[in-house]
TrEMBL record:
This is Amidohydrolase family protein. Residues 54-400 form the Amidohydrolase-related domain. Gene3D superfamilies: Metal-dependent hydrolases, Urease, subunit C, domain 1. InterPro entries: Amidohydro-rel (IPR006680), Metal-dep_hydrolase_composite (IPR011059), Metal_Hydrolase (IPR032466), Metallo-dep_Hydrolase (IPR051781), OTAase-like (IPR057744). CDD domains: Met_dep_hydrolase_A. It comes from the Bacteria. PANTHER family: ALPHA-D-RIBOSE 1-METHYLPHOSPHONATE 5-TRIPHOSPHATE DIPHOSPHATASE (PTHR43135:SF3).
Amino acid sequence: MTETVLFVDAAVLDTAAGAIVPGQRVLVRGGEVAAVGADVEAEAARVVDLGGKTLMPGLIDCHVHVNAHTADLAGLGDQSPAYVAVKASVELREMLHRGFTTVRDPGGADFGIHDAVAEGLIDGPRIFFGGKALSQTGGHVDMRPRGRSVHDDHQCCPDLGLVCDGVDGVRKAAREQLRTGAHHVKIMLSGGVASPTDRIDSTQFSLDEIRAIVDEAEAANRYVAGHAYTARAINRGLAAGVRSIEHGNLLDQSSVDLFLEHGAFLVPTLVTYQRMAVEGAEYGLSAANLAKNELVLDAGLKALELAHAAGVNLCYGSDLLGGMRRHQLQEFAIRGAVIPAADVVRSATVTAAKLLGEEGRLGEIVPGAAADLLVVDGDPLADLSVLTDPETHLKLVMQGGKVKAGSLG
């Protein structure tokens, strides 16, 4: 059960405007924000005086892999799905306690972990899942070493992807993910760091295959998210109707033009490359994987600056693997070095909500929004470290009107 709560003397973070509005009252009732204003009153409400602390919407990370408790993705599919699910539940609780009340998992999370969170069996961010990511043979989630011919694509294997080829094959694979209730379909448009046999600068899937997957997602009123690094791979995806590009480290001006033309979204994941360079080997990345990481490590900030300057829709992503997931909040600091704090916060709130199709419901403190709220001591627009150091600054996490961390006092 949720209780009716009236927050008073709140400095409300208006994420759309990029401003702090002091002296506000916010009424939470029935798991939603019921009213916001300087003169809001409510009988029989529990009054919580924030003493001028910042009240902001819960954070949204648009690129996590809840199953990836190791960076050795090739070995993940051979593990017990029960073990991986338990590990995922632990990580989800930690994400929630960092302030992430919503996440999108574009590869690995399925309807089971989604339902467990939605039913309150485990604490965690609400999950927008894509099921298994789709890859061509030899693509980014084909984790077979060169000498192995067979692979097991059973849906209960807790790995991140599914190998499929040909227009008919990719249509069926997309339909299988959508059949399970997936909120989007994730495809691999280029090579990646953690896979064993592809090149970063490769393109993956034919244009006919990409268009077939987009057709299936659109038929189900869903969308396609595409993993891509190079401008060539990004541009093929955007031209074929892919709605969000994950990573995008090597984009160029032609890519930016296509983002703007199609109203598409870019989800940079800069923190993962920094952490893989420092501690990737410790968590299972091979020497070959680490060498590929170097190819994209330094380019990401330049891509972020170029996209931001042009007004591309930017969303927050972390994409961390294994024990490196503890650095999830450091993406704020990395981005804040090159773009304004208000825009970094938007990427993890209102713009992320737009990508998810949850405008007005998530990412803002407005009447009718879900009561996903954080109380922080400090102003994130003046100092993003207010968000990156939750042990010091994060005082309360509320999700759907229920307190998940901290207390109402």
